[in-house]
Amino acid sequence: EAQNLREQAAETLALAERRQQDADKEAEAMIAQAKEDAKRIMEEARKDIAERLARREAQAEARIARAEAEATEQVRRAAADAATEAARRLLAEDTAVDQFESAAREIEKALG
User: Fold this and answer.
1) What is the pLDDT of residues 37-52, one digit of tens each?
2) Is the dihedral of CA 88, 94, 98, 104 positive or negative?
3) How far from 73 is each of 26, 78, 80, CA to CA, in Å?
């Protein structure tokens, strides 16, 4: 009977060792899978961040372009307004000179 108990103990030990080996293999597989998952998640996060940064950069560049266009338009309008005002003043001055010359001619005629 002792022999039988030894055999049962050996079988139980062998079974326990196999189960331990299986558990170790399963744990190693789980760790490997977790590492792969973590690597994939990190790559996806990096890609997502890069895409977001690219979108924000494009949006910022678009805002800058709009601001530049608006500033250019404002400068163009200001230049056009200044040119119009200068032309108006020149015309007013020319009219005053013409009126003065006309009055001078009238005076010469009257005196002369």
Assistant:
1) 999 999 999 999 999 9
2) positive
3) 69, 8, 10
* pTM of the predicted model as reported, rounded to 2 decimal places: 0.53
The 10s digit of each residue's pLDDT in 3-43 is: 999 999 999 999 999 999 999 999 999 999 999 999 999 99
Structure tokens at 65: 């372009």
Would the CA dihedral through 13, 19, 22, 24 be positive or negative?
negative
The terminus-to-terminus CA distance of the chain in angstroms comes to: 162
What does the domain layout of the chain look like in residue ranges?
Answer: 1-82
Alpha-carbon gap, residue 98 to 84, rounded angstroms: 21
Please state, in angstroms and as integers, the Cα–Cα distance from residue 89 to each residue in 62, 70, 85, 100, following that order: 40, 28, 6, 16
DSSP-assigned letter for residue 56: H
